[in-house]
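Suppose a colleague, Dr. K., hands you the sequence of a protein chain of 419 amino acids and asks what its three-dimensional shape might be. Before reaching for any lab equipment, you can write down a predicted structure in token form. Begin with the sequence itself:
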Amino acid sequence: YKDAPFIQFAQRAYGLSDKVLTAVVYAIGFDGNDYATTADGLKSVKVYLQSLGRYGNSAYLCPLYGVGSELAQAFCRVSAVYGGIYMLQHGLDKHNVDRSANIWKSVVDKSGQTLQANQLICTREYLSKDMDSYLEARILNRSYVSHCILVTDRSAFGETTLCKTLFPMGSLVLNPGETPVRKNQHTISVLQVCGGTMSCPNDRFILYVWAESDTPKASAKEELTAAIRKLVHIPDDPLSLKAPTSESSIDIQANTQAPQHLGDSATAAAGEDKPRMSLDQELDLDQVREEILKAEKKLFEENENNTPVPSRPSTPSPKPASKVFQKSKTSASLSTVSTVAPRVLFSLFYKRTTSWPRVPYPVGSEKLTPLPENMTVLKPMNHSLDFESATEEARAVFERLCPGAEFLPPTPDPEDGAF
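The predicted structure, expressed as tokens, is then:
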């Protein structure tokens, strides 16, 4: 089953019910999809289970002030503790490379200053044209990620303010009313954050929508609109949620309408499946936990050599789901308990490449000049919600450049005189 689809493995090996299978593949498996291998799926499930209970009932820990602010600040502070120096507003002009030995020597900034080092670590954006051409020529399969950022005047999920949801592959029609019907080929993820994350004012919400893409031809808007219209009101779009009425706009909390089940809506695009959510109130969480713990015991108590490994400490049965989970939506049909469709105050669509060379390389690329031996180019960010891949890559680079040194040791206390 190692390279078989994870969903097939979970069905045949553990007999999980449809609802629990949905939760495992799409919620617990993070951005799982029908093509995820068993090895990848089990890894995601294990990470999720080991994260439960560390910081409250959820397995997620959301940074304040946005990802780019909190984590970047933490990195800068730790780096500074160990002697890191930051040179601001120094745009790069060119690289100096010893072509005979293929060794990177230095970089020249826009002011003409030369900066030398023994090793250079960077991303593709900082490569010279000929260096980037070497990477570009060795890419076989192009990959991209479509993004959308929405600022709304109210939550798209009723009283739930901070949550993540998924639209599984094939659950949305991208070209309603047209033939042949085109459905989403990749899972579309949605993350809603609120004022509690310090990312926006208390009366505003931010929706991050993203999905993998295989082509640069389709815009991010074309690939994500089908999901967005399920969450907010889009002017002049009859398939999106209805616009707020004047009365409901005055009182956001007024309960004047029954919850709208978008999967059953008369305006739903023909041929669409009913989207499923990552967490839902119709799912018996006790049943999910019981089935998953049984599967976990079978999955993780023995490794490939059948050598017993310590199992996770047993945890008491969870208390009744908190209000935020009780207000989550059904996996049978995506619904919103919000009586008023959110208005979009700001929207931004963009698409970025995640293409990266993979073995085997295209024929002919071996004739190109390889990158200097003392230059490390980091991979682009992938589509995942977490930072596992970035952490793993950072560890691999560190261990290669600093063999034997400890990766991310605890920061010393200045009062201990360790400095």
